[in-house]
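About this split. The held-out portion is used to measure sequence recovery: a designer receives only the structure tokens and must propose an amino acid at every position. Recovery is the fraction of positions where the proposal matches the reference. Here is one held-out target exactly as it appears in the evaluation file.
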């Protein structure tokens, strides 16, 4: 099963939202793929706005916590997507896409999600 690794600075908002939406869209398309999220400087918890929005849609991440991205995460990923952060030496030889222009979730949740989901559609097409 292919794994997509989503990484943002705090591992608490964009990467969480991208991973949850990727898994939802992959299931709907019957794709054998999964997503994980991490941060380069992880926060102690997932952003409350993201947690609440996903919970309202039936995605319960209340037991999950942001964690630091590891070399094993990167090495095991089919694709790595970053949001405004650098992976430095971790990225050596890894297939990394930068989605740096996604708006901040804290400023406009709907706009950020729309930007992420538009890119996820293309990413899922690449899986086929």
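Reference sequence for scoring:
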């Amino acid at each position: 099963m292919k794994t997509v690794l989503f990484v943002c600075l705090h591992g608490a908002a964009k990467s969480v939202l991208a991973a949850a939406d990727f898994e939802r869209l992959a299931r709907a398309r019957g794709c054998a793929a999964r997503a994980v999220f991490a941060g380069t400087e992880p926060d102690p918890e997932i952003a409350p706005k993201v947690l609440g929005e996903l919970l309202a849609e039936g995605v319960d991440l209340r037991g999950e916590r942001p964690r630091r991205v590891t070399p094993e995460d990167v090495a095991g990923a089919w694709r790595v997507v970053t949001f405004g952060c650098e992976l430095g030496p971790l990225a050596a030889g890894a297939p990394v896409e930068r989605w740096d222009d996604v708006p901040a979730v804290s400023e406009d949740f709907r706009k950020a999600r729309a930007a992420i989901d538009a890119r996820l559609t293309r990413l899922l097409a690449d899986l086929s």
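Annotator remark: The mean pLDDT is 95.
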